[in-house]
Design brief:
It contains 21 helices and 15 strands. With 539 residues, the protein is an alpha/beta fold. It has two domains: 67 residues; 335 residues, TIM Barrel (Alpha-Beta Barrel), CATH 3.20.20.70. Helix 15 links the parallel strand 12 and strand 13. The longest helix has 25 residues. 47% of the residues are buried.
Length: 539
Amino acid sequence: MSRLLMPFTPRFITFTLCIIAVPVFGIAWIADPHPVLAICFIVAAFLTAVGIHDLNQTNHSILRNYPVAAHIRFIFEEIRPEMRQYFFEGDKDGMPFSRDRRAVVYQRAKKVLDVRPFGTTFDVYSVGYEWMAHSIAPRPLTKDPFRIMVGDTECTKPYSASVFNISAMSFGALSANAIRALNGGAKRGGFAHDTGEGGFSPYHRENGGDIIWEIGSGYFGARNPDGTFSPEKFAEVAASDQVKMVELKLSQGAKPGHGGVLPAPKVSQEIALTRGVPVGEDCVSPSQHSAFSTPIEMMHFIAEMRRLSGGKPAGFKLCIGHEWEFLAICKAMLETGIYPDFIVVDGKEGGTGAAPMEFIDHIGKPMRQGLYFVNNALIGIGARHRIKIGVAGKIITAFDIVRAMALGADWCNSARGFMFAVGCIQSQSCHTDRCPVGVATQNPSRQKALVVPDKIERVVNFHRATLRELAELTAAAGLDHPQEFKPIHISRRVSSSEVLTYADVYPSLSEGELIAGSGNPRWRRPWDMANPHSFRATA
């Protein structure tokens, strides 16, 4: 259907009324040449011309889906600095206004100047405010692209990853055009794109960007008809040169322990082919894996993923829940001698997909607490040097990356940041298949609004600008690489009169301390409860 015929769909009602009004007022004006009718005719004709322009321009997806009407949004954006205290909700993760963070992404993605006058918008004396210490002797600004090599001694095809990559978002949850734009940006910008558990789709393949292939409990793209894991199908897909790392998903930040469902209306023929599931039925990711049931078995499964992929880095992603379960995995590493090449820590505050309110608000460990725990657990078993750590969870700005790397992260993933870059406006209609900007929908006409070449450029711009700001923060701290950030570099106000560094807030274990027998009850108890032969706690 031509875009010029689309005015007759419901979301084009304003544009449709404008089109109807042109001949109505035109005929009325001819019959009675009154100045008011002339003005009405001119206004209707002008708005119709605006609507036609909206349908055919490529810069704003929402205008392509809601011609004429969507201009109201841009009017409010223009007055946002003056009106935000009335309309905008505070961000629970330390930013004064969540939409300010989205605005930063838009500005950087569009190459718009993103500086602002009159100092910080934070109350710097409020509890929870955090900042980075700068150096009196800053380093020269480096042009290093900031990469990290992933792959332990058992890995024959290590991967040089950017320190900032696209987090897991599945095709099916996102539209084909959104996947094309994200992966095209990853290709041009030289960073990685995590597929999410929805499979390695044709749209991930089109532009050739580096892929981290995520395998969840549904084993999509590598499953037998009964939903169990298929080694043969896994090996076939993982053999692609585009796949750089393979990742086992244990849980995700938005709904850890819940599993996932792609509603039946979004399970199209192409999604069914990519995932290996029936068309038009709810596509369910079980809450637990069928390929293994103990930490020991899990380590062997990761080793098998590495073998089947031809020696590519193999690791796992999780949101930390019961601490003894992760420590049981650590004990399984020691017992089997099998170590993942990487671990991605997902924070409960993250998650771009829809989930029950209770899971979103109250289940799982926040990213920084989870990262601190995983980093120190690996130090405590003497394995930190063998395993790289990635993190995800509301990471948008360069300062977010700095905080994570100060606590031990080797690289950071961002989902919402890159969604903003391709046009997401947080309408929170992802689960309805009615995304107004074509990002999170399988509706063919809606996703056509997302113009792939334009959004590829914005993805590249956002990544490049964020790394540029990271380089500036690194230099300001007197460092040469963001991996040099340590807990001592970040401070937090814990009361109106007291400030602690991350080194105080997050005390570190010593190398091998858990194996030697830590006397710290904070670690001793969950370590004693951990059983490498079961995810259940030892009494």
